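Page 42, continued from yesterday. The earlier attempt failed because a stray header line got pasted into the input along with the sequence. Redoing it now with the clean sequence only.
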Amino acid sequence: MTMRLLLLLVLAVAAVAETEPRATYIVHMAKSAMPAKYADHGEWYGASLRSVSAAKMLYAYDTVAHGFSARLTAQEASDMAAADGVLAVNPETRYELHTTRTPEFLGLAGSENLFPQSGTAGDVVVGVLDTGVWPESKSYDDAGLAEVPSSWKGTCMAGTAFNSSACNKKLIGARFFSRGYEAAMGPMDPSRESRSPRDDDGHGTHTSSTAAGSAVPGANLFGFASGTARGMAPRARVAVYKVCWLGGCFSSDILAGMDAAVADGCGVLSLSLGGGSSDYARDSVAIGAFSAMEQNVLVSCSAGNAGPGSSTLSNVAPWITTVGAGTLDRDFPAYVVLGDGRNYTGVSLYAGKALPTTPIPIVYAGNASNSTSGNLCMPGTLSPEKVSGKIVLCDRGINARVQKGFVVRDAGGAGMVLANTAANGQELVADAHLLPAAGVGEKEGALIKSYIASDPKPTATIVVAGTQVDVRPSPLVAAFSSRGPNMLTPEILKPDIIAPGVNILAAWTGKEGPTGQAADTRRVSFNIISGTSMSCPHVSGLAALLRSAHPEWSPAAVRSALMTTAYSTYTTGAAGPILDAATDKAATPFDYGAGHVDPTRAVEPGLVYDIGTGEYVEFLCALKYTPNMIAALSRSKSYACAANRTYSVSDLNYPSFAVAYSTANGEAGDSGSTTVTHTRTLTNVGAAGTYKVDASVSMSGVAVDVKPTELEFAAVGEKKSFTVSFTAAKSQPSGTVGFGRLVWSDGGKHSVASPIAVTWT
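This time it went through. C-alpha cells are written below.
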C-alpha cells in the first residue's frame, strides 16, 4: 500500500511538472567540480539535469562556456541553481538583428600592400553569427586563394537545400543552430525557412560578404551603386553560423554558435544582433565574448538601431568591440518637384517606370484615411477613393518604410513621398520601392505638407536621379545608431567606434526580394540596406586585416588601434566636428565613441592600450561580482578578488575615458571639488620615440591633469603607465555632460587619441 501511494505521489508530481510552463535556461557549471565518477563533462551535465528534470538537453557547451541548456520549469531552474557544481542558471534571452563604395571611402582602395595576403601566417577566419549564407553568391568565389589553413577544425553542415560541397576555400565553414529557437517557438515551417545554413533572409549573406567577401566587378542594385563590391578583408576566410531565424535569435543557439566558432578556429567573430543591455553575467553574448577574448578571438558587435535616443546601446561589455553607424559619401538622390516649382531633394532606389514629368495630384495620408494612424500608411488605413492616381505623403515610423509603399500601391496610389519625423531628423535611408517614391528629411517633409495644406489643388512629381558620389559632409552619425551613455557601466564609454552603416551594397539571398516583403517577387544578387548590422561587419573585416598584419596583437590591441586612430572631425572638405544626422549639429563621443574608423592609420597606431584576462577580472571585482558570477563568465574558479585590495572600474586599461560624477545630495553647486583618477598603460608597437600629451575638456569647471606629460619608448613591446586626474570644481545638475580628447603624439606620424566624456548622474 505504501509503495502504491509513493508511486502515485511521484506520478502526481511528474504530472504537475508536465503542466507547468517551461522556458529555456542556460546552466553554467564549474568544470573543475566534476565528481571523479563521471567519465566526461557531458555525462556529468546529463546527470545533473536528470537530477531535477526529465527534460532533454538542448546543447552542451565546452569552449566559450561550460554547461548546458534545457527547457525547465521555474521550480526546476531553482532546484538546478542549488545543485552542486552549478555557478549560474540564466533564463534565455531573445535577440534581434540590427538591421561597394566602402573600401574607397575608408581609403583601402590601392592599399593592399599594407596587409598580408592569404597564405601567410596572418590567414584569418571571420566567423559571422547571423541568418546563414547564400553560397552561390559570387562574393564567396575562392579564385586565387590558398588551401584552407591546416589549423581549421570547422565543417560544412548539410541540410535543407544546402550540401556540404557548398563550402570552398573562401566559405570554409557553415553550421546552423535551431534547437533553442524550435524549443521556444515550435517546429519551423519548412516552406518558409531552411533547416540548414542556407540564408532565407539575406541579412547574413549581406553581413558576411561585407566583412570578407571576394571582389565582384559590376555589382549593383538595379543599376545603383555600380562598381566592384568587395569585403573589408577580401582575402580572409568566412565561416557562417546560422543562429537567427524568422522568430528571432535565441541565446542558447547564439552561445552554441559562439562555442563552435571559437573551437573551429575563427580569429574574429561578428555579431550584428542585440537584446538590450543586461548584466554581463546574465548576457549570453557577453559571456561567450569573454571566453572568446580569453582564447585570443576578437568579438565585434553592433551597437543597436535604437537611436537617436540616449542610453539605447546593446553589447556594452568592455571586452566587446561595440560599433555604431555612419553614412558614406555616396547617395541616391531623388527630387520631389511641387506644382508651384519648388524642388526638394530626397533619396530613392526605385528603378521602374517613372512618373509623368507633368505634376499629378498629391495628398497627405493623414487626410486620406479614417484611421487615427492613417498618416503612417499602415496596412488597410488608406481610402482608395482619396488616393487613387495620386502621390501620397506618408510619415515615417512604426511599420517598415517599404511596406508603406505597398500600402499606397494597393490603395491605387501612383507614388509616395516618405517624410521623416523628429525621430529621424534629416537622415535619409534609400529603399528599393516598388512604386515611384522618395524619402525626404523632416524639414522637407514639413514644407511639402504645408504646401499640400495651403494649395487647393496641390500637385507634384518625383524624379529619381541615380547614384551620386563625393557627397559632403560625410560621414554623419546615423540617426538610428544607438547612443551612450552606457547605463550598465557609466565609467566605460560606448560605443567604441562608428563605421559605414547607411545604404551599404553587399551580397543578397536568392530567396527574398530586396525589400524583404512577401509581395516583392524581384530577385537580386546584391542589395542596399542600412543599420548597425552593416557597420559591425565593416569593423569585423578591418579587425581581420589588422590581425593578418599583426598576428601577435591581442583583441584589445586591435580594438585600441582602431579606436585611437579614428577621426572625430572631418578630414576632407570643410573642417569641423562630425555631425549627427538626427540633429544636423555636432555629434559627441556618446554618438560615435572614439570616432569614425580609419584603417590605413590603424595598421600603424604607434601605441596601444592592451588588456588581458586578468585585468578584465579586476574590472569585474570593481563591480562587486561574486566568485560564482566571475566563474560563470571566465569558465574558471581560479580567478578571485583579493579581500585586501580596492578595485576601481577607472583602472581598466580602456582606450577612452568616461568620468561619472554623482550630483551632491541631488543638488548642484553645493559641494567642494571632486577628483576622479584613471590609470592607463601604453604599449609601444612601433618605432622608438618620445610622446607628449595634450588633454582638455570643453567644459568650464573641470580640470584635466596628466602625469607624466611625456613618455619615452625605446623598443617594441615596452610599456609605460600614466594617470589622468579629472577635477570638478563643484557639483553640477544631474544630466550635465562635457566632452574632450586626450592625445599622445610623437610629433610626426603617430597621434594616439582617446575621447573623454564627463557626466553627472
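Notes: DSSP finds 17 helices and 40 strands in the chain.
Reminder to self: strip header lines before submitting.
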